[in-house]
Amino acid sequence: MPKKRCTFCALDAILLCALATALGLFLWRVHLRFDYAWNWAAVPQFLLRHDPETGWMPNVLLRGLFTTIRLSIWSTALALLVGILAGLAGASHSLFLRLLARTYVETMRNLPPLVLVFIFYFFIYALLAPLTGLEAALRNASQWPPWLVTLLTFLCDEPARLPGFISGVITLAVYEGAYIAEIVRGGIASVDRGQWEAASSLGLGRFSQLRLVILPQALKVIIPPLAGQFISTIKDSAIVSVISIPELTFQGLELMAATNLTFEVWITITCLYLALTLGCAVLARRLERRLRWRF
Asked: In what residue span(s) does the ABC transmembrane type-1 domain sit (predicted)?
């Protein structure tokens, strides 16, 4: 399919000029309204710091960004597991499984995520951690071998902050899993009914029909919105700052309180979030194009 040529016409130039004028007026009004002494020179030190022994190291904002990325990756991985199981249950023949999946999806989608964060952190985690032995293991973290502490810090967070990190991951996974379940169920439902009948006529059982015939076709519909759901998880991860997980928004709140550089800090955080989500969006678009060629 030939690519469309991009042309730049007079209307585009007029719109660009109007946009630049509006931006200039906005910045001028900000300058008049706030009479603010900008201090952008202070921002780089919050991104990187120089250690005489180890060289350049990430400082609070970059450490917060890395925690956001780790939180999003673990949450999405767990949400995929929850969402696929719930999606398959929602598309099954069993009325009980369909009701179970529908109850889960509707409950999660109709609760504020902030409420879920508090429920999981103060109730469910506090209930399950002693039963699973996790609480005792974290209490003895000082006896862990150094390599294990380093590995856990790299993959998740420091042992002292693991309870909050685990609660945040589970909360985001359960919340995002409800949306992934709908994506999976919708992808399966998009496959024509005749495909089920054709697979059945070959003598395949329900599981084999799903695995060999339906899911390969449904993936074309499922994968692009899944990439969008990962971007949504990155944005939703900001809400776990209320339980003191040192992700990007939490670090911004702490930094703003300590330095009073409100505008510089939040504009920098906005740019970091945009760089992360727009980068993921570009990758998702490329993945979607590649899948369009393959299927």
From this structure: 65-284
- Which helix (H) or strand (E) segment is 49 a member of? strand 48-51
- Please list, residue by residue across 64-99, b when 16 or more beta carbons sit within 10 angstroms of its beta carbon and e when fewer do: bbebbebbbebbbebbbebbbbbbbbbbbeeeebee
Q: Residue 66's pLDDT is what?
A: 93
Amino acid in the structure at residue 55: G
User: Any idea which residue has 């899944």 for tokens?
Assistant: 226
Largest distance between two CA atoms of the chain? 76
CATH number of the CATH domain containing 89: 1.10.3720.10
pLDDT at 220: 80
What angle separates helix 162-190 from helix 215-236, to the nearest 10 degrees? 150
pLDDT for 136 equals 78
Residue 283, domain member (yes or no): no
Owning domain of residue 197: 69-245
State the amino acid at position 1 in one-letter form. Answer: M
Residue 195: the pLDDT is 85
Which stretches of the chain score pLDDT less than 50?
A: none
> Are the CB atoms for 157 and 165 separated by under 8 Å?
yes
**Do residues 164 and 121 lie in contact, with contact meaning Cβ atoms separated by under 8 Å?**
yes
Task: Identify the DSSP state of 4.
Answer: P
How many domains does the chain fold into? 1
Residue 240 lies in a domain: yes
Is 49 part of a structural domain of the chain? no
